[in-house]
Amino acid sequence: MKRWYLxxxxxxxxxxxxxxxxxxxxxxTYKGPGDTVPPGGAPSSPAAPSTPSSPSTPSTPSTPSTPATPATPATPATPxxxxxxGAKPTTQAGAPxxxxxxxxxxxxxxxxxxFLNLKAKVHSGATVTDGAGALVGxxxxxxxxxxxxxxxxxxxxxxxxxxxxxVDEEDDRDIATAVMIALAKIGEQPANASEVxxxxxxxxxxxxxxxxxxxYGILKDESSIPMLKDLLLDAKGAQDAVGRSEVPLRSRTxxxxxxxxxxxxxxxxxxKMEIADILYTxxxxxxxxxxxxxxxxxxxxxxxxxxxxxxxxxxxxxxxDAEKDDELVLAHVPNxxxxxxxxxxxxxxxxxxxxxxxxxxxKNKKSKRMVRQxxxxxxxxxxxxxDSRNEDIFKxxxxxxxDGKDQQLKxxxxxxxxxLGAADPGDTRTDVxxxxxDNMKKSSTPYEPxxxxxxxxxxxxxNETGAPIDPIVMEATLAKFRKTKAPERKAAYAIALGLMGxxxxxxxxxxxxxRINDSSYRGYAAISLGLLNAKEHLAYIGEVVxxxxxDPDLLKQASIGLGxxxxxxxxxxxxxxxxxxxxxxxxxxxxxxxxxxxxxIGDKQSVQPLVDAMTNxxxxxxxxxxxxxxxxxVADKDSLPWNSVxxxxxxxxxxxxxxxxxxxxxxxxxxx
Length: 672
Hints:
Layout: H1 104-116, H2 118-123, E1 127-129, E2 143-145, H3 152-169, H4 173-186, H5 190-201, H6 206-219, H7 225-233, H8 236-242, H9 249-265, H10 269-285, H11 292-302, H12 310-322, H13 327-330, H14 333-340, H15 349-363, H16 369-381, H17 390-403, H18 407-423, H19 427-442, H20 447-465, H21 471-483, H22 487-499, H23 506-515, H24 519-531, H25 538-546, H26 552-564, H27 570-578, H28 588-601, H29 607-614, H30 621-634, H31 644-647
Antiparallel strand pairs: 1-2
Helix pairs in contact: 3-4, 3-29, 4-5, 4-6, 4-30, 5-6, 6-9, 7-8, 7-9, 9-10, 9-11, 10-11, 11-14, 12-14, 12-15, 14-16, 15-16, 15-17, 16-18, 17-18, 18-19, 18-20, 19-20, 19-21, 20-22, 21-22, 22-24, 23-24, 24-26, 25-26, 26-28, 27-28, 28-30, 29-30
């Protein structure tokens, strides 16, 4: 697999950013296969070209595509690990090997946010007694929060004014996109933020204009719905707003995603229904040659969290049955249906019909390949407690493993099984556990690590509900971890051990980091130790961070491990990289990793150094934009990244450029 980095150089004190020709503030961490689709898949629409004015560096690959955001490593390609057996990547002469898109790391990178939930853990620090300062007069036992979250005064009086000031003073693409996303995430002074978005809608640089449309959704601004509707439908008012004879396809697509975010956040059922109707009508009437708008409508409908979803699910079901749209569009329908039905109880007729429909698609080998992959994901998502259909779901998933011709479909069964096992408290959970254990232990194929990961996901979900985990699962996964040599596969078991809270694995994980000289593996092991809150190894992970000057991926992953352990020194260690004592200029890739980690951890200690960088006019515009992105992540009003709702349980193999774009990093899932 190939790694992509957002190359940034940042020095604090003299905070100094270098600009490079292939850099852009509107890029981030490459998480997935972009518009690379299985044989026969249709290409996604081309990204709208940027207006020639702003020579800002092209968006750099590697994180979600919002403004300047330091890159998390591309889907953690495990360099040095042997190629996955059975994978047959095609290569051109002189070109690097194509990534194996069926490997487990892609699924993990798209879904990891809900499992790590890093910022919530960092911000939920313990309370301390007798440290209340001015509150002491209220009583000797007064308690004050001892979290690492930025304070309200920091956000309102330092971060937000600095962001507004920067965007007012600078006319630069990178700064404009970075500040808009940051203001939208933070959510303070929404009226003023909306004015900034409105101004940038008419920017002739496409990246700036489309980011403005997306920012309304991240802000969750319900008053923007009429304008976003006009953008989506290419109405005259929207054409005037963007200053063009027609609204560009990318802006229309981003407006659809923006409405999905607003609808999901709204507590007003009428607003949810209004947005659902707009998106559905557009889905069924859009005739664009590109699939981006229709894909955006389906994916956005799926996240709406509607209180009464059955009517919409029935409509989507009809579209799926008709098979009139492109495979890339249809492939997102099963997942959207399953997400909408997530809170519908067992026995509901629409739920029953949806399970039947998905099983029928899976049984029909003539069904479109990517649609079958999605059906495999969705049928497991529909499993619920005390449902007689769980046995049917288990059987069809087993059949899909035996079929085995589509590796991606086969691999998705492991996660689908995990959802099924977590949902069913009875015999089906026992069957699922045995199935995943047997295939993890006996198989010598690429399916093996997926089964290990599936066991970890199932155990994580059971832990959340307080349900017991079979000790055999813990023992078998640790035994498989110890036995496995290949770094990429071993990393899957490392993550699984962390997800299931396997306390007995802490020393093995720690020791393996000394034995295995593979940075991707060591990064995942550090994440696992963080998930296990292995504070006995905190000092060691701290040393890994300090020694990772030449290893950006490991630096970022190990820093996140420290963040998961709520290490109060994590940010201090990272800030050292920004202002080396020897005065030397840090490497760009290292500093991009540092900035990403600072944003993910969200510690208030990083606020002032980042504000100093952002307001330092001796720094390049790109560098200042990166600082703005990091500040937006640190002060984000939400604990999870805004786009995680789109990436979760997504069939990322059915991608269009506005969803995931490996080349430019400007899809919505590429934006931090």
